[in-house]
Each structure stands twice: as structure tokens, then as C-alpha cells.
Specification:
Elements lengths: L1 E2 L4 E2 L17 H7 L2 E7 L2 H13 L4 E4 L22 E6 L3 H8 L5
Antiparallel strand pairs: 1-2, 3-5, 4-5
Length: 109
């Protein structure tokens, strides 16, 4: 089984990841997950809500990793405990990448 949130292959028969409680993917679905590419990364929770809204309105399937990670200083200060704490990453299917990048272009400016 594969956990898309932890990005780990887990040897279990359970439906959920023992580390983060996310629904596990079967090996067949794991191959599907490899077709996703990262399109955006941010530690701004308001911005992540906007990105979700844009992708949902465009009917683009996405995976979010790190959504529930926060530093004790509110996620705005990535220097506090390492650069990865508090960052949210968005992944979409590579077939939707061109459209999504176009939709999110102004957010990068």
C-alpha cells in the first residue's frame, strides 16, 4: 500500500496510514500517483485555500501534501524548525499541468 501524504510504501492490509491516518492507495493506484507533478508550494494558508478553489472550479484533480503541518510560530517562519515545516505542496495530473500553470500564473507574481 502507498500513502500519498507520507510518500511511503507501507506493508499493511489496513485502509489508512498508521502514521498520518490518510487513506492508503493500492499498488495500482500508486502508479497513478506517479503521473502527478508538483505545481505549487506555499506556507500561506490563505493562498492554499485560493489555489484549491481555482483547481476545483477548473475541475482539476489535485493532491495536497503537508496541509496539516505547522510550525509553532504559525507556519509563516520557516526558519524556526527547518525549511519544510509549514509548506503545502500541490500536485496535479501531468495532463492538466499546462492549464493549471496558466490559472496560477498570477499567484506566482
Amino acid at each position: 500500500m502507498y500513502c500519498p501524504k507520507c510518500d511511503k510504501i507501507i506493508d499493511t492490509t489496513k485502509e489508512k496510514c498508521p502514521f498520518c491516518n490518510t487513506l492508503l492507495l493500492s499498488n495500482k493506484q500508486e502508479e497513478k500517483a506517479s503521473d502527478f507533478v508538483k505545481i505549487f508550494e506555499s506556507s500561506d494558508l490563505g493562498l492554499t485555500a485560493i489555489i484549491k478553489s481555482i483547481l476545483i472550479n477548473a475541475d482539476i484533480e489535485y493532491i495536497v501534501r503537508g496541509e496539516h503541518m505547522q510550525s509553532i510560530l504559525g507556519g509563516q517562519f520557516s526558519f524556526a524548525f527547518g525549511a519544510d515545516i509549514g509548506k503545502v505542496e500541490f500536485f496535479i495530473h501531468k495532463d492538466d499541468e499546462e492549464v493549471a500553470v496558466e490559472l496560477l500564473t498570477e499567484l506566482n507574481n
